[in-house]
Design goal:
366 residues, alpha/beta, five-stranded parallel beta sheet, binds fructose -6-phosphate, EC 2.6.1.16, glutamine amidotransferase
């Protein structure tokens, strides 16, 4: 049932070229330049006229929501907030008609997320559910939605569900932008083409598995890790840190790379591995300066970079080279090495990566 893999987690990481394809299939037709989303068709108008969008989720799904915030604001020019479901629901948020809530959940059963959307619905908001499990409670409580179609996720740490969420949230943003007229035809077509190419690029990134195992071996005894990124890659840094914590029990923190100098930089010494998600995008030059700041304090830099980059390899201790992609879709590719890194560190330390201690696949208590 593990399909020849040692663990479900590795199997599910390797399934991603297919699961990303499945999440786009039947929706995206790059050749024709069309995008069909059955589950939101009726609400396309409501979505494009939303005063604001609030994304509610927990954990890895919350990280997918953060990427979506950047994408929706960029393409749709609608203000977006991303909320931890547990905080959102208890602080008596200002919600009313004209607000759209997007609930993101793999299981569709996370209690905090479910309760958050139920109370927002009572206040007149429209709920869009992005769930993986068909017929789940959150899917049923939503008026509109789209399934991620990643298939059953058995490994407790979420991997393929995350990239499928990113794919579907990007499609949703494109759909709203097209409806609203806030995107040019060229950019729309360009992003459809980019989305279509993501599966192959993820397959290429998976070829780095052996190299990442070696890097994992080199750093597995570190006490702490820092993960840094900016822009679309900032949530990827958060996700890399969460995966490592869950699977290897190494303390790890994710930060926006520039925020590091406001505190976390105090932790940097020759024993601290710092993982930079530093692919070529609008933020690249700034990230290069952040890498210099770490090197000046003797931190060990492991950088996820784009092929063809000649600057960072001269500075970093280790580089992991991924295919080039538009910055909006890059997170689906740049997260792959971080999933593999967490996996290998956990396995090398002798832990049961499919069932990390203290964690459950779905958190059905508030
Ligand atoms: C991380 C992880 C958790 C879940 C979170 C939300 O690897 O698995 O952080 O992402 O509990 O779960 P869902 O998406 O089912 O609502």
């Amino acid at each position: 049932e593990k399909g020849g893999y040692d663990h479900f987690m590795l199997k599910e990481i390797f399934e991603q070229p297919q699961t990303i394809y499945d999440s786009l299939r039947g929706r995206l037709d790059a050749k024709k330049g069309t995008l069909t989303m059955g589950g939101i068709r009726e609400y396309a108008d409501v979505l494009s006229n939303a005063n604001r969008i609030v994304i509610v989720a927990c954990g890895t799904s919350w990280h997918a929501g953060l990427v979506a915030e950047y994408i929706i604001e960029e393409l749709c020019r609608i203000p977006v907030e991303v909320e931890y479901a547990s905080e959102f629901r208890y602080r008596n948020p200002v919600i009313g008609e004209g607000d759209v809530i997007i609930a993101v959940s793999q299981s569709g059963e996370t209690a905090d997320t479910l309760v958050a959307i139920e109370s927002a619905k009572e206040k007149g908001a429209i709920i869009l559910g992005i769930c993986n499990v068909v017929g789940s409670s959150i899917a049923r409580a939503s008026q509109a939605g789209a399934y991620t179609h990643a298939g059953p996720e058995i490994g407790v740490a979420s991997t393929k569900a995350f990239t499928a969420q990113l794919a579907v949230l990007t499609l949703t943003a494109l759909k709203i932008a097209a409806e609203k007229g806030s995107i040019s035809e060229q950019r729309f077509q360009h992003l459809l083409d980019e989305l279509e190419d993501v599966s192959d690029k993820v397959a290429t990134a998976l070829e780095l598995n052996d190299q990442i195992k070696e890097i994992a071996d080199k750093y597995k005894d570190a006490r702490d890790f820092l993960f840094l990124g900016r822009g679309y890659n900032f949530p990827v840094a958060l996700e890399g840190a969460l995966k490592l914590k869950e699977i290897s029990y190494i303390h790890a923190e994710g930060y926006p790379a520039a925020e590091m100098k406001h505190g976390p930089i105090a932790l940097v010494d020759e024993n601290l591995p710092v993982v930079f998600v530093a692919t070529k995008d609008t933020y690249y030059e700034k990230v290069v300066s952040n890498i210099q700041e770490i090197k000046a304090r003797k931190g060990k830099v492991i950088a996820i970079i784009t092929e063809g980059d000649e600057t960072i390899p001269a500075m970093a201790d280790d580089v992991i080279i991924v295919p080039e992609a538009d910055e909006l879709v890059a997170p689906m590719i740049s997260v792959i090495p971080l999933q593999l890194l967490a996996y290998h560190v956990g396995v090398l330390k002798g832990y049961d990566v499919d069932k990390p201690r203290n964690l459950a696949k779905s958190v059905t208590v508030e």
